[in-house]
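Box 3.1. Reading complex inputs
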Amino acid sequence: MPDIEPLRSAAPLREFVKDLAGLLARKPEEAAILRDGGALLGRLVARDDWLPESCAQPHPQRYSQYLLHADSAQRFSVVSFVWGPGQRTPVHDHTVWGLIGMLRGAEYSQPFHRAPDGTLAQAGPAVRLSPGQVEAVSPRVGDIHQVRNAYEDRVSISIHVYGANIGAVRRAVYEADGTRKPFISGYSNDFLPNIWDLSKTS
Amino acid sequence: MPDIEPLRSAAPLREFVKDLAGLLARKPEEAAILRDGGALLGRLVARDDWLPESCAQPHPQRYSQYLLHADSAQRFSVVSFVWGPGQRTPVHDHTVWGLIGMLRGAEYSQPFHRAPDGTLAQAGPAVRLSPGQVEAVSPRVGDIHQVRNAYEDRVSISIHVYGANIGAVRRAVYEADGTRKPFISGYSNDFLPNIWDLSKTS
Ligand SMILES: [Fe+3]
Ligand SMILES: [Fe+3]
Ligand SMILES: [Mg+2]
C-alpha cells in the first residue's frame, strides 16, 4: 500500500464536502451554487494544513489532477490541481459549473471567447489567483480558459470543485486556431485519501 | 504510491453507489431501505469481478475493513470486510441500519439478545451466508451479533453497507458476561480505490 503518511487532519475537507452536499440538496440555481459554494471553498482554501501529501505531488512533465472526493450521485467532485514550475493546461472548457480555490502559490487563468465562426480570442486579461481567492467557470459565466502556474520556479496548488464527476465528463480542448478536440481528463490518482477515518484523524 | 494495480472495472460498485444514493434521496423508511437496498446489494455481490485487489487483502492477525466509498453527507458507507482463515469479530452492535452481502467464501453471523439485566444470550442459530446472499442488521431488526469466517483454511469477503460513516460511529462491543465497551472501528485503509476514473476503467 502507499508509502505516504496518512492525514493528520482531514476535518476541513470533510466539512467542506458535507456542507456542499447540504447546499446542493436544496437544489439551488447555478448562481447560488457559485456564490454559496464559492464561499465554502474560500473557507477551505483560507488554510493550508489539510491537503494530503499524496495529492500535493507535482509530476515532472505535466500538471496533476488528484481526485479528493466524488459525490455518490456524481453531483460534484473535488480535485487538487498541482502545477509544477511553469506548467499549464491547454485551452479547455468544462461544460458544467466549476469553482477554483487557490491553496498554495499562485496561478493565472486566461479566459477565452469562441466566436460563432469557431475562432478563439482572449476575453479580457488573465486573472491572477492568490491563496484564499476563488474563481468560477461555467457555460453561463464563461467556460473556456487556460490556466498556468504563476511561478517558473515553484509548485502551485488549487482546489477545484465541479458540478459533475469531472474526470469522466466529455468536454473539449482547443487549438490556437479554435479547432475543438474531444477531451476526457481522467484523474492522476488510482487511490483517494481516506478522509473518513475519524479514529485516526481529528 | 500504491504498488497495486488499478481496477479493471469499477462500474458495478459505481452503479451500486449511484443507485443507493438515489434510493436514500427519496427518504424511505428503514424497512424500505433494507428491502430495496438489500436488492441492490444482492445484485452487486451476485458477481465477483469488481472488488479492487487492494481491498481484498487479509491481515494475518485480524479481520480487515476497507472503506470503498463514503457518501458526501455520510448518509451511507460501503466497506469490504476481509476474513482471514478462522478470523472473527467480537460481539458488537451497529446503532444504524446495515446490510451484509456475501461476495466470496462464506461467513456465519450469530445474533445475540441483550436482556434488560445486561446479560447476553444467543438469539437463535447462526446464519450462514453464501455468495450472493444478503443479511440485515439494525436496532429495529436485531443489532447485536458476532461474525466469523465459515472457513479455517481460506479467505472470505463480504460487502457491508451502513446508514452512516460506520468507521466513525460510537458503538459497542460486548464481553461474554454482557459487559458493554465503547467501540469506534475506524478503517483498515488510508487510501480508497479511485472508482470514478471512467477514462481508465469501463
Ligand atoms: Fe479549467
Ligand atoms: Fe456487524
Ligand atoms: Mg460521496
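In summary: The radius of gyration of chain B is 17 Å.
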